[in-house]
Amino acid sequence: MTRISATLIPGDGIGPEITEAVTTILEAVDAPFVWDRQHGGLDGVAHGGDPMPQATIDSIGRTRLALKGPLTTPVGGGFRSVNVRMREAFGLYANVRPVRTMVKGGRYEDIDIVLVRENLEGLYVAFEHFIAVGDDPRAVAISQGVNTRVECERIVKFAFDYAVRNGRKKVTLVHKANVLKALTGLFLEAGRKIAKEYEGRIACDDRIVDACAMQLVLKPEQFDVIVTTNLFGDILSDQLAGLVGGLGMAPGANIGPDAAIFEAVHGSAPDIAGKGVANPLALLLAACLMLEHVDEAAKARRIREAVALVLETDRVRTPDLGGTATTTDFARAVTRRLGT
Ligand code: NAI
Ligand code: MG
Fold this sequence. Notes:
This protein is of the alpha/beta class. It contains eleven helices and twelve strands.
């Protein structure tokens, strides 16, 4: 088997715990990755004063492939999100976030939705400033979003191509073009144009984001692939995770023409960090997307099948899924199933 070198960033908070669990499971399926371990986030600050160290950037530049734990971003002030900067640095324009029911008995039995989020533009460009009034230097806050036709067309095309490749039936364009007529009107216009190219192969409809949020709770089965702008995609993907048991279940892939970074949707979970109870499944499912990305779909399938047995038959579940298993218990249960 050809070995593939890949960057591994354990990251902050629960990052090192879940990374350990995931790399152990990857070894059990003989995954091809040879890890180049790097720092990032607060861990990068602790090891040399930089949340996005040059060595980490150089490593991803070399490998073009990374598995990344969550990185803590200070709220309000402090440094800009390293996650956002990495997406920009490597032009990772598509964020793919699939959610699927793995634990039965929740509100819904068969959720299977893929959210494709535009990853570089919208309100995330953070063109922000304050205006002083009187003696208040921050009396007024202003933020400008940027969407370009080129990028809107590229992300919608990505969603349709994904639908074709993965046997999906429908793409839903999600926007707020009734109010943000320029910023998200452009996205809708570009989306409808691209949709025409797939007519007869992939169906297309559109929803206003707030109505979409409600419909996702009332009737999630009407959705298949959703494509939307950056901020809406961030919010809806956490909501989607909630439909299948929470953030512990939701993986994400950041894809560009030259590199791909795989990560969990969740953050560094400071409230449970160091306690050994974090659910490693989201990062594990991200590693499965990474295996598929390097044409090792059979290994990804083996892991998902082992996970299904562990969750449903062995009933080994971490506390976020109502169980009592630790991160290590869960990883051991999965490796045990992989060995049999
Ligand atoms: P969070 O996702 O870290 O946590 C939200 C809630 O979900 C917490 O109660 C947490 O305990 C729980 N949770 C998250 N992942 C879990 C897991 N694997 N197993 C069990 N429970 C889990 O979101 P929060 O608290 O808003 O953000 C914490 C930090 O993470 C912030 O600094 C934020 O900027 C950063 N963040 C980083 C991301 C990334 O690196 N891609 C994504 C989202 C947030
Ligand atoms: Mg988020």
